[in-house]
Specification:
The two termini are about 45 Å apart. It contains 31 helices and no strands. The protein is flat, with a radius of gyration of 36 Å. By secondary structure, it is mainly alpha-helical.
Length: about 550
């Protein structure tokens, strides 16, 4: 695991430990006091705002209620305050449209509030006014509100009949479903039907799934079916998953089937994954197979990986296999790595091979590195080898870092060695710096030498600078030393300021200016007084 990832994981663990650790009794008492104080504050604040309502000081009341909602959004009075905001707007003769919208937003946010009925009544009154002024769209809104209110009353009555065991309540509910056009009311009736154990209720839900023209109602009925303990429910879900005309309905059926314990579900998912012409349905079925433990499911995933023409379907199969990767998977992974036209899929197969323990997977990765002509595959093979670890891995990476003519591959080998920093000492990295002629590899080595905060030790930088001959690399080292802002770097930079290469010397002067300590300033004065090259003098910071 690289340092950035490791730090992120450690940080997350510390956060979770702090979050999950038991609070002290004193801490609990403090929190209880804070909660009591908060409750007292919002009670006082609401009482003051409500007094303005009673006094009919509507502008002040509106401002006070808005401030209350802003400051006490978690209080028990927030829905009351939201209602009085709308009411005050109406009393202030704000536009009926804006007040109507205010009430509508209130009802959407707090449908169970004790003020919801008052808000609906006010909306009906405002809607009628707006309809009379030439805005007929509000007439339809009023009708919907009145229908919903009537439906709520009917449903409450039906629930009461159901609770007292009225034998006609089921027929009444079914008739109400057939008569209504409200999607919201249909959904509520469907979940009521789920509570009935009578076969007529199950049959009605089944009819809705298969024949109802309202697509939303069919999806709601499918959810209700998935929660049913009727033995026919699984068969119904299978039927929809196999031949439903609506793709989203089929997906919902597949998801519901994943939750069942029926052993025959795996066979259905295999058929869908292999044979369904819709790639989205095939991927959903593959997702279901991911948790199936049978050898049949595993064989199906391997077959999909080999035979499917759709790269997204193959990728889904590969991801599912990653949960159960073992040496038996390696031949299929090798095929995907070397012959898969989709590069993302090939890289995923390499990562999977790197996660399989044992010499067989390492041998596969070595063979891929040796035989592949694709530089991208070789790079990711090196990373997978580093990830795998094992005997000989360090030598493989070091050889690629020094001898591979492709700078990108050599750089990737250095990054792989970075994973072995604990066992790959600094002197070996410095030796690698001497042996390589690639600027890209040298930069990668410096990254590998960095500490946990991304800083290369000054002692390492000065040693590398002392032995470096390439002017461009020297300038990079000089600039890196300047970024350390350390007095330890000053002697090396003072020496670099006397370099024969004027660009390196100038970079050293600028680096001393970047450090900016008294010791760095003294070095700059020494450069001016003793050496005084005109080019450097121009670049000395004032």
């Amino acid at each position: 695991m690289n340092k950035i990832i490791r730090l992120a994981v450690i940080g997350t663990l510390f956060f979770l430990a702090a979050f999950l650790s038991p609070r002290s009794t004193l801490g609990n008492q403090s929190q209880e006091k804070d909660a009591d104080a908060y409750k007292k504050d919002y009670n006082v604040a609401y009482k003051e705002a409500y007094n303005l309502v009673l006094q009919e000081k509507w502008a002040d009341a509106l401002g006070a209620m808005e401030e209350f909602v802003k400051n006490y959004s978690q209080s028990a009075w927030v829905d009351d305050a939201r209602f009085w905001q709308c009411y005050a707007r109406e009393k202030l003769n704000q536009s009926p449209e804006s007040v109507y919208k205010c009430y509508q937003e209130f009802i959407n946010a707090y449908p169970e509030s004790e003020w919801a009925d008052d808000a609906r009544a006010n909306m009906v009154r405002l809607g009628r006014q707006l309809a009379k002024t030439g805005k007929p769209e509000y007439e339809a809104m009023i009708q919907a509100l009145e229908e919903n209110q009537e439906a709520d009353v009917k449903l409450a009555a039906l629930y009461a009949l159901q609770d007292i065991g009225d034998p006609e309540s089921l027929n009444t509910i079914i008739n109400l479903y057939d008569a209504t056009q409200s999607t919201q009311l249909k959904s509520r009736i469907i979940f009521m039907l789920q509570d009935f154990k009578a076969p007529e209720a199950f049959a009605k839900i089944k009819t809705i799934i298969l024949n109802d023209p309202d697509l939303q109602a069919r999806r709601t009925a499918l959810i209700a079916m998935a929660q049913s303990d009727n033995p026919e429910a699984v068969g119904m879900l299978k039927e929809v998953a196999k031949s439903g005309k609506d793709e989203e309905l089929r997906k919902a059926a597949i998801i519901s089937l994943m939750e069942t314990k029926d052993p025959a579900v795996a066979s259905l998912l295999i058929d869908l994954a292999l044979m369904d012409p819709n790639p989205d349905i095939a991927r959903m079925a593959i997702l279901g197979l991911q948790n199936a433990e049978s050898q049949e499911a595993r064989s199906a995933l391997l077959r999909i990986l080999k035979e499917s023409k759709n790269p997204e379907v193959r990728k889904a199969a590969l991801i599912s296999l990653s949960q159960r990767a073992d040496p038996e998977t390696l031949p299929f992974l090798r095929e995907a790595i070397l012959n898969e036209p989709d590069k993302d899929l090939a890289r995923l197969a390499l990562i999977m091979a790197g996660n399989i323990a044992g010499p067989e997977s390492l041998d596969l990765l070595k063979a891929v590195l040796a035989t592949s002509k694709d530089a991208d595959v070789q790079q990711h093979a090196l990373l997978a080898i580093a990830q795998h670890g094992g005997e000989g891995v360090e030598s493989i990476l070091l050889d690629a870092a020094i001898n591979n003519p492709d700078e990108r591959i050599a750089e990737m080998a250095v990054l792989g060695l970075h994973e072995f920093k604990g066992s790959f000492p600094t002197d070996k990295f410095l030796e690698l710096l001497k042996k390589t002629t690639s600027q890209r590899v040298k930069q990668a080595v410096l990254i590998a030498l960095a500490d946990e905060k991304g800083r290369v030790p000054v002692s390492v930088l000065t040693q590398v600078l002392k032995e470096e001959t390439d002017p461009e690399m020297k300038r990079m080292l000089v600039m890196t030393l300047g970024q350390t802002k350390s007095d330890e770097a000053v002697p090396a930079l003072l020496e670099a300021a006397r370099d024969k290469d004027s660009r390196t010397a100038t970079a050293a002067v600028m680096a001393l200016g970047q450090i900016g300590t008294p010791k760095a300033k003294a070095a700059l004065l020494e450069i001016i007084e003793k050496k005084e090259p005109e080019k450097i003098k121009k670049d000395v910071p004032e």
